[in-house]
Amino acid sequence: MKNVTDSFVSLGRWPSAGSFGFNTDILATNPINLSVVLGVLIFFGKGVLNDLLDNRKQRILSTIRNSEELRRGAIEQLERARARLSKVEMEADEYRMNGYSEIEREKANLINATSDSLEQLENYKNETLHFEQQRAINQVRQQVFQQALQGALGTLNSCLNSELHFRTINANIGILGAMEEITD
């Protein structure tokens, strides 16, 4: 404290020449300047500093509250997404199982339909073969009959002379006449 009073006393010792000058005694002037600056800063800056710190504190608390709300919202969205995911997975499993059973059912239906078609084709083939066999048999019969008829006609023509022909006609007329009498 003695240094502070000494510096005020030294102000009185300045020459009164009316000039302004600097005190170059660092040890005498620095503590006074610092104490004045610090006093002014503390007196005027205390309110501003408190306001700045309060504003900063409010912004930090607001940011923390917003972060908490965002975190809660994110957790809720995550839970909803997980629930939706599990639901979709269950539906996918159900579709997969239904799809597999549907595929198996369609496979069995296709095999059955193919088997039925093959059976029908086999029946058609057998019917066609039977029809072709009957047609071939009928053609062979007709050819044999025609050959037999031609052979019989040839034999008859070679064996029949006009007298034998006349007797055969008379015998047939006699048979027809007898049949006519029986029916009357």
The quaternary state of the protein chains shown equals: single chain
How many helical elements?
Answer: 3
* Outline: rod-shaped
Main beta-sheet strand count, sense and barrel state = none
| Helix coverage percent | over 70%
Instruction: State the low-pLDDT regions, or none.
Output: none
Average pLDDT, rounded to a whole number, is: 82
| Overall radius of gyration | 68 Å
Number of domains: 1
Strand content: under 5%
End-to-end separation = 183 Å
How many β-strand stretches? 0
Explain how this protein is built.
This protein is an all-alpha fold and 184 residues long. It has one domain. 91% of the residues lie in helices and 0% in strands. The protein is built from 3 helices and no strands. Helix 1 crosses helix 2. The longest helix is centred in the middle third of the chain and has 134 residues. It is rod-shaped, with a radius of gyration of 68 Å. It starts with a helix and ends with a helix. Keywords: ATP synthesis, CF(0), Chloroplast, Coiled coil, Hydrogen ion transport, Ion transport, Membrane, Plastid, Thylakoid, Transmembrane, Transmembrane helix, Transport. It is a single-pass membrane protein. Belongs to the ATPase B chain family. Component of the F(0) channel, it forms part of the peripheral stalk, linking F(1) to F(0). This is ATP synthase subunit b, chloroplastic.
